[in-house]
Design a protein that fits this description.
With about 230 residues, the chain is α/β, with parallel strands linked by helices. Helices cover about 35% and strands about 25% of the residues. It is built from 7 helices and 11 strands. The protein binds cytidine-5'-triphosphate and magnesium ion.
Length: about 230
Amino acid sequence: MVTAILVAAGSGTRMGADKLFLPVAGCPIVGHTWRRFDQSPCIGQIILVTQPEKREAFEHLAATLQLTKPWRIVAGGAQRQDSVWNGLQAVTTEWVAIQDAARPCTSAETIERTLAAARQSGAAVAAQKVTDTLKEADAQGRIARNVDRTQLWSVQTPQVFRADIIRRALAEVRQRGLHVTDDTAACEIIGQPVVLVECVEPNPKVTTSADLPLVETLLRGEALTRG
Ligand code: CTP
Ligand code: MG
């Protein structure tokens, strides 16, 4: 059994708004993400990690989504890693898929393939190869050197783990007072290998308003394909 943790307790500072409730393609961003995990055959239940004062808004949203899987709401923390930690306390299954609620285009196939890879090794993450040419800058904002991108990936979500592994990794991070921007970085700290699963379709995270047109286009396009 797999539990999905949707981390949705951020404050949207870079967007300058409560980005998760911005309507895109007819539904709040977090509604798209929630529906995708609800509809994934791999997922048994869903934990939403939210700011406590947003609970009611999420409950109202749930009522509009025609959900089929059990779900519950857990209070988030100051940093993303604290929100994941709080969500993990409510997980009773052997496997957990951690997803940015702000990433509404994740496909069923990506969820399935990331889970399959994690089952082989304990931990896996959806990722894309870096395609832009990369440069390192000097203090004056000039190019200092070219960076070889052949081994570089940008990691996304879902990040899928055996629950005991990610619990142990984040416990270590907390004990040492470290800051990690994602859960695979916590695995690195305990020496747990994480498999990169190449995500073939766009899987963007909504961070600033510049991300909205692409996400709108992707979600509308899919709605048309589904008819
Ligand atoms: N998140 C969370 N708890 C936090 C911080 C972030 O659950 N304390 C969640 C966000 O809601 C989002 C995901 O982690 O779904 C990725 O974070 P990000 O894109 O950085 O969102 P925000 O933190 O809300 O945005 P910003 O950094 O611009 O404030
Ligand atoms: Mg953030």
